[in-house]
């Protein structure tokens, strides 16, 4: 299913009945998804959360919905959102199944990118209907998240007989379902983390360096530049590569590394790693000519050795050459 599929286009018989909704784990994701389902006509009836921040989020996004234990959430809800950290999810599912909290016919939905539906097998054996619906979005824990779900892609994994129900729920939340095979979930999640989480680190480092260089509003300077770079990358992929590495400007790259060593040595390893990855992609796509690459790769290799990292073609401990 793709962007051409709208909520209105979904056949009525494929839409899930109006469901009572519960949330186990009132972090940034769960209350936003429940609030979105409420807009589609479903009814949040229970939420669980431990920290003060979780309680505040639940109160803000799901006012008047009672805060109860996880077992009580499952007792009250036909559709249960398990929105807990990845490492917590397997133990939570096992515990709920072992204590008899899971009811036959209950829709049990987790939002982990890492896992498919196999992590829900203990609940499946108890009669639950397992769904994995992962929104490819960063969450703030505020009402803006509900708006951001419009057009957001969801990584969907479910048994074939539940596929229509899973896709229908995503569409009702304003999202776009993207089918991910069970065995592909870890790779899918790694790809999203590489692009999203590391982007935050890169942007934060860039803003820090601009402040050191005397720029008063680094966010204002970077906004248009990074927005254009992201748009170009999404449209054109590697053809959008620009800058001194893609051009083979070894002298400029050497100067960058020298300045980073002097002012922000903690950023050197990341700069070298990204420069090597950029050089490899630029070479593979014919943007960086081999004759221009030799001096550049020499700079990266020399500085990699000085930084205690492996340069191109070098082997690390236990690695085959």
Automatic annotation (TrEMBL):
Disordered as annotated region, ranges: 300-321
Ranges of compositional bias, category Gly residues: 310-321
Residues annotated as domain DUF2520: 152-278
Domain Putative oxidoreductase/dehydrogenase Rossmann-like: 15-135
Transmembrane segments: none
InterPro entries given in the database record: 6-PGluconate_DH-like_C_sf, DUF2520, NAD(P)-bd_dom_sf, OxRdtase/DH_put_Rossmann_dom, TM1727-like_C_sf
Protein name (database record): DUF2520 domain-containing protein
Organism: Streptomyces glycanivorans
């Amino acid at each position: 299913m793709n962007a051409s599929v709208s909520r209105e286009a979904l056949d009525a018989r494929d839409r899930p009945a109006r469901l009572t909704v519960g949330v186990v784990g009132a972090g940034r994701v769960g209350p936003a998804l429940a609030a979105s389902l409420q807009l589609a006509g479903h009814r949040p009836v229970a939420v669980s959360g431990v920290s003060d921040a979780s309680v505040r989020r639940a109160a803000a996004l799901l006012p008047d919905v009672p805060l109860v234990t996880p077992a009580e959430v499952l007792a009250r809800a036909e559709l249960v959102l398990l929105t807990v950290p990845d490492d917590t999810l397997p133990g939570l599912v096992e515990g709920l199944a072992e204590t008899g909290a899971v009811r036959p016919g209950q829709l049990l939905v987790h939002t982990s990118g890492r896992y498919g539906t196999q992590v829900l097998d203990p609940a499946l054996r108890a009669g639950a209907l397992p769904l994995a619906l992962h929104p490819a979005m960063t969450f703030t824990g505020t009402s803006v998240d509900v708006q951001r779900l419009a057009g957001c892609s969801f990584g969907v994994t479910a048994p074939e007989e539940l596929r229509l129900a899973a896709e229908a729920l995503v569409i009702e939340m304003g999202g776009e379902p993207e089918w991910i095979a069970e065995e592909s979930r870890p790779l899918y999640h790694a790809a999203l983390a590489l692009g999203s989480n590391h982007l935050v680190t890169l942007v934060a480092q860039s803003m820090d360096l601009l402040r050191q260089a005397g720029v008063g509003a680094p966010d204002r300077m970077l906004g248009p530049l990074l927005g254009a770079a992201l748009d170009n990358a999404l449209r054109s992929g590697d053809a959008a590569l620009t800058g001194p590495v893609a051009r083979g400007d070894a002298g400029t790259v050497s100067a960058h590394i020298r300045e980073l060593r002097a002012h922000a040595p903690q950023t050197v390893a990341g700069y070298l790693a990204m420069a090597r990855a950029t050089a490899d992609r630029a070479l593979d796509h014919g943007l960086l000519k081999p004759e221009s690459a030799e001096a550049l790769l020499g700079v990266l290799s020399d500085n990699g050795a000085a930084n205690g990292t492996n340069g191109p073609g070098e082997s690390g401990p236990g690695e085959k050459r």
